[in-house]
Hints:
alpha+beta, four-stranded mixed sheet, 9 helices, 4 strands, elongated, disordered C terminus
Amino acid sequence: MSYLKTAILLAGLTGLFMGVGYLIGGATGATIALVIAAATNLFAYWNSDRMVLSMYGAQEVDQRTAPDLFNLVAELAGRAGLPMPRVFLMDEPQPNAFATGRNPQNAAVAVTTGLVQSVSREELAGVIAHELAHIKNHDTLLMTITATIAGAISMLAQFGMFFGGNRDQGPGIIGSIAMMILAPLGAMLVQMAISRTREYAADDLGARICGQPLWLASALAKIANAAHVVPNVEAERNPATAHMFIINPLSGQGMDNLFTTHPSTENRIAALQQLAAQMGAHGGTLSVNARGNYPRRSPWGRTSASRGPWG
C-alpha cells in the first residue's frame, strides 16, 4: 500500500508540474515539464535523502563519535526488526528529528542537537522509534520525493513570471501571479493529503517499538512548545521539507503555516495516551500547553519515572 500511495502522490505532483508547464509554454511547455518531472523523480529517488541531509548540514555519527545516540538507535532498530540506519546529528537549537532514505536498507535518522540536549533518554527513544516507524512503513521515500517535487513546482511557477508579459507565449501577468500562488499551494495540499495519516501511524508503531507510548507523548509536548519559540532558519527557507520532521519546524509567522502538514499535537498526544492505557502503561496527564524546562546539559545521566529497556 505504501508504494501505491507513493505512485498516486507522484502522479498528482507530476500532473501539477505539467499543468504549470502548459500554462507557461502550451503543449511544448507541458512536454518539457513532463520530461523534467520524470528526470526529477528519478534523481529524487536516488539522491533526495542526501540533498535533504546536506541542506540541514547533518553530520554522520558513529559509535565512536556519539556512542549513546548510536547505541540507542541500534537497540531500537533491533526491536523494530530493521537494518541499522545511518545516524546523523544536525547542529540546530530547535529540538526536532526526521528520517529519510528510499528503503530500510538505505535509511538514515537525523536528530538535532537541540533535541538531544532538551529531552530525557526515554523521550529521545520515543522520537527515534517514531522515525524508525516511518522507515518500516516505507514513508521515507514518500517524504523525500515529495519535498523534492514540491520544491521543483514552486521554482517552475516562479520561472513562469518571466513569461507573464507575453500574452502569446505565457499566461499573462495576472495568470503568472495566480500560478505563483496556486501551484505551490496545490503541491502543499497533495502533501497534506497523506501526511496526517502517516504521522498517526508512525506515532502508533513507534510507541509499540519503544514499548512506552508516554515517552513519545512527553517528547511531542516538549518539541511542539519549543518549535514556536526556537526558529529553524533552514526550514523557514525550505518549507517544502517541513513535513519530514516529527513536529512542524516552521514558526507559524508566515503564509506557509496556514496549512500544516502535521496533525494537532494535542490529538497525537491524546491518541498516545489512549494507546498507553490499552498497553497498560502508567504516567501522568500530558499537556502541549504546559511549558517544560529545556536543560542544556547532556540527558544521558537523567532518568524518568517510567523505566524501560534503556536503563
